[in-house]
Amino acid sequence: MTTQAAPITNAPTLEEFLPGGPLAPAADSRIELVGMDKAELAAVLAPLGLPAFRAKQIYRWIYVSGVTSFAQMTDLGKELRAKLETHFRIGRPRITAHQVSEDGTQKWLLAYGDGNEAETVFIPDEGRGTLCVSSQVGCTLTCTFCHTGTQRLVRNLTAGEILSQVMLARDALDGWPSPAADRDLTNIVLMGMGEPLYNTDAVVKAMKLAMDGDGISISRRRITLSTSGVVPEIERIGRELNCGLAISLHAVTDELRNKIVPINRKYPLEQLIQACRNYPGLSNARRITWEYVMLKGVNDSDADARALLRLIEGIPSKINLIPFNPWPGSPYECSDPKRIEAFANIIWNAGYSSPVRTPRGRDILAACGQLKSASERIGKRERDRMEAVRLEKEAAAGL
Ligand code: SAH
Ligand code: SF4
Q1: pLDDT of 311-335, one tens digit each?
Q2: Is the pTM of this model over 0.85?
Q3: Closest to 247 (Cα-Cα) out of 291, 309, 287
Q4: What is the CB neighbour count within 10 angstroms for residue 142?
Q5: Which of 79, 94, 223, 321 is the S-S candidate for 111 at Cβ 3.0 to 4.6 Å?
Q6: Which pLDDT value is given to residue 14?
Q7: CB distance 141 to ligand 2 below 6 Å
Q8: How far is residue 57's CA from residue 233's CA, in Å, rounded to a whole number?
């Protein structure tokens, strides 16, 4: 427990933050506090002459009470609150669009200060609710089945921008403060737009804040990070977060994976599997999740299923089969339900849990791999057309 903030060297002076000072950005450019940890908050408040315990109080107002204005910080003097309000901000992204699916899934399109947009999706389930968080605007990788992959990377999100997705969802769903036992938002998955391990610093910082028992307090056991396989960063996630790990596997030979998950050319399967074997704390209660998108005629044969079992042998695992979610212009079809069932049975019979992920929020393009923001968003007409095609196929397949 830190009661005394460590002495901060190089702490900027208040003058540097003030309008006209070297750190003062243009126009309304109060300093954003969301995304700051305790030490940073102490450092940024120090020039106001605030003692460490004040920084701690303010930290709790932000991350436990979820306030968005200093006026709400009732245990601070009026004058101090006004002063804070002039220099600092406790912001949220602007909501550009909010959609609710017929299955209860909610998607927010969020605009950040510079106008860049990212999506965040809430998936309610029995006994829990999962927020699917974005880590980048777009993605530099180009997995061939992924809609986000067709959007070039615009930029990394900052820790504050990642965390503020969680905070905004808490505003909308649970309100603040909300005791852990009584929350709709119980879990976080880093499975939104972007590759979290190409933005590891910000992701680690945001998730540490989300986990902090003095703050937002979502246990690391309820956080899962999904990566397409940035092998050198996996070790760091194990060391610094040790949250759940999901791997976007999707193919069991280098030959196919090189094509559909191109990062495999840099970090081939053998290295990826080894990094997973070494992930700390694996046990039957804490398993690696292997995500496997079912692409008709591409990776869905019985032989693929058996090769998958050989590949992960000895690693505590669960396999998450994801029916391919189409998007406009996507070059694949989803495997037939019977094929998915046969594939799942092979895995099940080998003793692994192999849930088939029920697509959620497809009608609002919120399902896995469908997220894509801004400039290239599709219109309602195209969405309706895709949904009609999907329903027709499902009807034909007797679903
Ligand atoms: N970039 C990270 C996080 C995204 S997670 C990663 O790739 O792991 C989103 C998951 O949905 C990944 O497993 C991704 O491979 C999968 N996915 C992408 N496009 C999909 C699609 N069209 N249908 C179903 N799943 C898809
Ligand atoms: Fe990027 Fe993940 Fe999509 Fe691949 S699957 S393009 S890594 S978001």
Answers
A1: 999 999 999 999 999 888 899 999 9
A2: yes
A3: 291
A4: 14
A5: 94
A6: 45
A7: yes
A8: 34
DSSP assignment of 250-310, as one string? Answer: --SSHHHHHHHSGGGGTS-HHHHHHHHHT-TT-BTTB-EEEEEEEBTTTT-SHHHHHHHHH
- What are the tokens at 347? 């895995």
Exposure string of 172-203, with b = 16+ CB inside 10 Å and e = fewer, is: bbbebebeeeebbbbbbbbbbbbbbbbbbebb
Phi, psi of 356 (to 5 degrees): -90, 125
CA distance 227 to 234: 9
Local structure of residue 328 (DSSP, 8 states): T
What tokens appear for 160 in the block?
A: 């504050």
**Residue with CA nearest ligand 1 atom 13:** 248
Q: For residue 398, count CB atoms less than 10 angstroms from its CB and return exposed for 0-12, middle for 13-18, buried for 19 or more.
A: exposed
Ligand 1 atom closest to residue 326's alpha carbon, by position in its atom list: 22
CA–CA separation, 267 and 246 (whole Å): 16
Percent of the chain with pLDDT over 90: 74
Residue 116 to residues 109, 137, 153, 369: CA-CA distances in angstroms?
10, 7, 11, 19
Q: Which helix (DSSP H) or strand (DSSP E) does residue 120 occupy?
A: strand 117-125
Does pLDDT of 20 surpass 50?
no
With a 6 A CB cut-off, is 248 part of the ligand 1 pocket? Answer: yes
Q: Which residue has tokens 């299955």? A: 103
Q: Hey, what are 376's tokens? A: 């290239």
Which of 143, 146, 243, 368 is catalytic? The answer is 368
Whose CA is closest to atom 6 on ligand 2? 149
What is the spatial distance between Cα 230 and Cα 102, in angstroms, rounded to a whole number? 35
Q: Residue 280: which region, alpha, beta or left (left: phi > 0; alpha: psi -120 to 50)?
A: beta
CB 250 within 8 A of CB 293: yes
Task: Specify whether 368 is catalytic.
Answer: yes
Token readout for 57 is 């109080």
Task: Give the Å distance between the CA of 80 and the centre of ligand 2.
Answer: 46
Q: Are 246 and 288 in contact (CB under 8 A)?
A: yes
Q: Distance (Å, rounded) from C-alpha 186 to C-alpha 182?
A: 9
